[in-house]
Batch of 3 targets.
Target 1
Amino acid sequence: MADYLAWLALERRAAANTVEAYGRDLRDFLAFLTRHLGEEPGQAALAALRPADLRGFLAARAAAGAGNATRARQLAAVRGFLRYLARTAGLAPLALANIRGPRARPPVPRALTSDQAKEVAARTGSIHQPGHAERPAEQAARDVALFTLLYGCGLRIAEALALDVRDAPLPGGQAALRVTGKGGKQRLVPVLPAVRRAIADYLVERGAPPPEAPLFRGARGARLDPAVAQKSMRHYRRLAGLPEHATPHALRHSFATHLLGGGADLRAIQELLGHASLSTTQRYTAVDAAALLETWRRAHPRSG
């Protein structure tokens, strides 16, 4: 199992969180087999597994309270592990194709209200975190610029933190920001004047950094870690009394939800967010259905 997890991390370049979750899932699976078989399983026991044994594992996890998404991930972890053993240890491949995992429902995005999103974007940097190693003025300007960019352009935090100074949308610059999203797919996103001003103010605090430098930097000059941005948001939301779902990613949800509520076309929102499938964008219709209905009533000629 340790070899499999190391292979996932090094060869497949799986995220650290994924490797950690798969490790927990496999420990759950092996613990189930120990109870199910009456002894710790070896390779011979794994080779003798039947699809019914895997279904029993999933049923046991459901009885323990594991949701659909968790059980689907656990089945993927077990499948990957058994296939790895088939390739590396000569384990006979099992008939896994007919075992369907539970269908996980994608969570409904949780957006902030427009007032909350504006407050986060404009005021997060105004609260200095005690004992913080960074320069307070630069940190404040950076956080305002970052969160204004996330809400004003609907970027994922990884997309924003991947920008260099040369990419910075500044007053008088190009009309749109070129963003590299998932899978290396690029898109153009229009930039509001408020976003340009916030980034310009931040770069003044930076003192004219070179074009190749990271746009958003941490205390030691390296590219800002997402965990630092999340910590800043967490610190602010607790002091400001904002809900727990007020996270950097919630600003992206808020961008989409507020556009939809204002009557924007789903296809346009899909392009702005960089979604590969329209079905992903359609999740936002459940968030602001009331506002969407009101837009229809105002726009449809027979609504009266």
Note: Residues 2-88 form a domain with the DNA polymerase; domain 1 fold (CATH 1.10.150).
Target 2
Amino acid sequence: MKFRKGRARVEPEINFIPLIDVLLVILIFLMATTTYSKFAELKINLPTADAEKQVEQPQTIQVGISANGQYAINGDTTAFASPDEFAVLLRRAAGNNADPMIVINADAQTSHQSVVNVMEAARTAGYGKLTFATQTTGK
């Protein structure tokens, strides 16, 4: 049964013009909203060495501070009136070493001011390497 006599069948067409218009609008939108950033990279090839690094042990000055505010330098009890006087004692204990490591052994009940006095004396003496000694609990 043929219902359409004499009519030729028309093949459907795909119109690409609207598709191209939509894609062009999307492309313009993406170009306008994209942020461009440059990554500054510095390519460096570092030299390698096969030798073992020697562990340097800097000269240390042990400063002890008791709970009642007594000071000791390398085990010798000292007394001073100002951080400047203590700086002189630190320089004397350092001897020829230009920048020794100052290790502060402060009691847990020591006042903060006592520790700050030692730090100020080390700064006055020109010593920038400070560290604090701690003890571990056997838990």
Note: The first helix runs from residue 17 to 33.
Target 3
Amino acid sequence: MKRLFCVLLALTLAACAPASSGVASLPDSEPAAAASALTSALSSVNETGFFSYYYDPANSEAGTRLGRWDFRDGTMHIPCTVPDCDHTGAKCEARLSGYPLVVLEDAVYTLELDDSRGLYELSVRDADGTHPRLVGTLGYWNFVGADEEFLYGFCEGAYGRVSRADGTETFLVHGLGVDFSDYGRVLGVWQDRFVAVSWDWSREEPARLCLLDRDGAVTEVARIDPVRFSDYNCVLIQNEILYLDRPTGDVMAVHVETGEVRTVSQALRPYNALEGDDFYKCQRWYLLKVEDTPIVRVVDLVDDHLEQAVFRVNEDGTVSQLPQCQEFRDYDPELGSGYNSQPEPVTVMDQWGEELMVCCAVQCFTYENEDGTFWATQNVYALTSVEDYLAGRENYREFSSEE
């Protein structure tokens, strides 16, 4: 079992704090008698908008701040309620130090390093990102889900939970090692359990698909030949885990309960090829989803330049190319010499109801300081409908900035 856990928990832990918070482990604790539904913490969206780190190179003294792209009014807000705050000083309550966000429907959590103690402060904010309050001081956690009482995730090689009320840490399973940041993912929640996938970087052991209960119990669903499994390229769609088959580029699916494997599509085979040293082109691809539709971003390296195309996988296994590309605005080749100005495909950031949060353009601008004139870029975000995106239509409602 210990070995299974060690293989399971990859990419769910980035790095641990240099010191432990010293909270006692309670491996035999009983779960709440009437626990609320387990939800995923992998999305950056709640009913108030899309949350992300916001950094303006031309205003570097402001540091990194929390940005909220409001779905109701189409405006980007810096969520701060400090009177007369210009959002550049330390008093701004939207200032962040660059650690993870956990966006839930009723709250937003941030985890930030306390340099004086080498620990992390967990703070909770209102659903719109304002009014931060300290919950507690913890080790470094990577949270993947929540219910009404706890945040669930991984810390220092253990799986556990943190109280949303006071920050109390409970480690449910120990002995998971120190750093699995390269070897797996939690893909979401299915029937009140986390769906996790993990792999062995050396490809000596099979990739494993598992279900993880909120009390720490693990159910192994399936094992996949390590030669065939393309590491990060996996998503959860309804009751199946989809992944890319390395030698072929086929889209495969594994049922999360039975472990049954089926082929979803073979239509991308012409784009895949062995490039030497057991490396296939599809290892650079990205397997995503929009609602229940698999999306594959095909990446090809041509003359040291990345060329990308996006395909939707249809129900019959065929694929349709999505032509939407980001607009590259106000690019000055004299200032941006050497910069790759080739448009990239429109990027889907998250989903809100029947609409998608997308990056539809890149805005170039110049700014000046005492060292001269510089240029920089910022992403332009917009909403578009799921229907328009999957049909290849460019129909965007761009966000404006309150600043």
Note: The first helix runs from residue 2 to 8.
